[in-house]
From TrEMBL:
GO terms for biological process: D-xylose metabolic process. It holds the Pfam family HTH_24. Transmembrane segments: none annotated. This is ROK family transcriptional regulator. Keywords: Carbohydrate metabolism, Xylose metabolism. PANTHER family: BIFUNCTIONAL UDP-N-ACETYLGLUCOSAMINE 2-EPIMERASE_N-ACETYLMANNOSAMINE KINASE, ROK (REPRESSOR, ORF, KINASE) FAMILY. Belongs to the ROK (NagC/XylR) family.
Amino acid sequence: MALTKKQRELCAKILDEVYTNGAISRIDIANKTNITPATVSSLTSQMVEEGLLYEAGETFDKKNKAGRKKILLSICHDHSYFIGSEISERYYTFSLTDNLGKIIAQTAYPLVNNEIHLTSEYFISKLQEFLLASPVSIKAIGIALPGHFNYIKADQIVTNNPLWQNFSLATIKGAFDLPVFFSNNVNCMALSEKLYSPDKEDNFLFFNLARGIYCSYVYCGEIFCKQNFLVGEIGHTSVSLQGDLCECGKRGCLQTYASETWLLKKAALLFESSTTTFLRQLATSPKDITLQTLLTAYRLGDSGVILLIDTAINYIALSLLNMTMILDSSKVFIRGKLFSEPMIKKQLLSLLNYESSLSSMTSANQFIVKNFDIYTGSIGATALALNRTLLNKL
């Protein structure tokens, strides 16, 4: 039976409730969504027939004195499939997942030549290769951007990085017959936590440390304030008024202490100014220093590198603790290659997990350092595609 536009909207609302809560009964869906029980029953029955939902078991209704059992509904695996891609200046990553985030295929293309590789044409060619190799029919494509997407001026990535000035999103969108959706890469990662994680949370932060620093905020199950691109730019919050001049025009931004770009910039200065730094043994010139070089020097006990990283970790902890005092969040997810070093991860968590005298006022935040994986962004992009199609959300 063909659904009306209103019925499709209600189906998306019901589906979102199941994604948000996990296994849930029809009556609980009706109570949470304010959709009539009869409508919920009718639409969920149709979604069960279509293989989108399944009856996962029974639970007792404690509020019902008769002890009536409630039948729980859950999302079916393998109902539909999505391709996600993350665009970055180091690599293009591609992931193919089902509607519950189960990974079917993944691949990555390292980028070496900026003039050739950092173009929409090259990206399209690699996305087409991945799409043609898919063993299943694809419902939609999501693309995680190293910046923001303006729905009104939809051709370019909104960023201060000049590398992406000639990268045409409209050309990418026009190259495929499938629906193609764009969003900020960290917002995509946060969406994948909301939709794919077995531990469901309505309010949480997703902090990402890479070339820049960004923090996505999920509030009441939605990305908070998506149209204001300054919201989430934690890298441009000032942590020291006498600090270095940031590219944004302010002094002492978190970015200037903790972003990979600035850590490597300061490591290059250390290479040139110190005769005792291990960086001179690990790299032939300042431009050859990578984050991995920095982590190796840190493990070897390089005092200059240790000072750089300790300062970065202190300011990251300060910023995250301040955010949890302002924003309602039960969990804070932390991602970055820097934290793949166990000693750095341990140091950060020791600063974050302190015993507060205010803890009696509310439950403590849970800080979770994610295992670093280059595919996190592309998996997040599949969640974006799912969110825009099955859940019908902007």
